[in-house]
Every structure is written in structure tokens, then in C-alpha cells.
Amino acid sequence: MKTSFMGKIRILIIILFLISLIQRLIILKLMLNFNDPVILRQDIQNTVLITIFLQFLLTVIIFFYLPVFLHNTFSEIHQILKDISQGNYKIDIDLENFEKNLDREFYAVILEIKKMLRSIITFDKLKKEMIMEHHSRIISILNLTENGFIIVDINGNIVYINDHVTGVFSAISENINILETNFPPDIENNIKKYIQNLIKFQTKQETHMFFLPILKRHISLKSAIVWGVNGEMTGAVVSISNLEKKKQEKSKEKDSDPQ
Q: Among the listed ranges 116-120, 126-130, 185-189, 243-247, which one has the minimum average pLDDT value?
């Protein structure tokens, strides 16, 4: 690891102090051993000019060195922080290289950033695992119920649909936009229109019942709004009941199956 930044500054300040001290010692020696006042004056002038020049030179070095040094150092740190701010947490930070090329104070910052990234990645992994676990539980619950479910976002894109719905309405599938797709009349005039009103008015709709010739009975639509953190609507859930097969239908299918 290189000398610390503060150590370098201290060395330059000590050098300035030593130059001033040497200047005074030389002048004191000249005054104690002088024979000719004219020569003494010239020697003192030369000593003062030389030491002032050296002090000026060191001051210029400090004046230009500090901005360049800080710019070069913080440019690397700034690039890492920029990547983090853009959501890139898998940054390959070469600690060995930074340890060789950075001063101790700035290397400590890089080290803490590395530790922070490890914590973020660990938290992100645990968060994803928890989200997937909760998502799996919700999907399992929706598939175990007898109702059909359609979940849409604020733009009408279907983000989830369970098997009960696709088993009856084969034209509806996941990852399509229900508002931009043309459907058979039963879906177009009931389910699609119901979801259109949900998104348009951004409020829960009254239960809607309609007769479905395929099932030869009425089915009903119920709704719920999905709200965001700031209270804005982000989507909706539509429940379709009475889609399940009746016991009579199941027994007929069982009887009609070839032995």
C-alpha cells in the first residue's frame, strides 16, 4: 500500500518548515561570522531568494498536485459509484490493484464499497428467493381454488391467468394485452369490457353475470384493484366464478370414457 495521502501532505509541510529553519540558521551563521557588511547583505539576500524560490516551488507543486491527484483518485471511485447507482452490483473490484495504487485513506473507501456490494448482493439474493417463494404460494393458492383468475397491469397486459380460465376461454392467454386483442363475442362483450371499465374508472366494479353457452350456465365476474406504494392503481384482479365442472358433468365424462 502506498504512503497515506495525509502522510504526503505532512512531508511537504515539514519540508517547507525545514527550508525556513535552514534559512534562519544560515542567516544567523552569516551574522555571527561577518566581516564586511556589504558581503553580509549580499549573502543574506541570496539565502532569502534561494529559500523563497524553494518554498514557492513546493507551493506550486502542492497547488497543482492536489487537484490532479484527487481527480485521478476520485474518478475511479466515482465510476464504481456510478455503476452502483445504475443498479450494477456485480462489479469486479480488484482490491490488490487498488491497494498498490491508492493511498490508505482512499483504499479504505474502496474496501468499504466492496463490503457494501457484498451485503447488497446477499440481500438481493434473499429478496429474490423470498419473492419467488411468496409468488409460488400465491400461484398455488389461485390454482387450488375453483374460481378462474385474471391479473392485469394498468395497461391491460395479462400478467397471470390460471388454468380454470384457459380451460374454458382458450383465446385468453398470458402475456397478451387484453385491451388490444380481438376476442369472440362472449369474451369481448363481457370479460374484456369488464376489464376496460376497471382500468378506465380505476375503481372496483359491481359483480357482472352473463350466460356462457359453452357451459350452459351463468358465470359471474368480480374485481379487486391492485394499489401501488403511493396509492396509485397498478393493476387489477378479476375473479370468474362458476367455471368448474359440475358433478353431473364429471360423472358423464367418466361414464363416456372407454374402458
A: 243-247
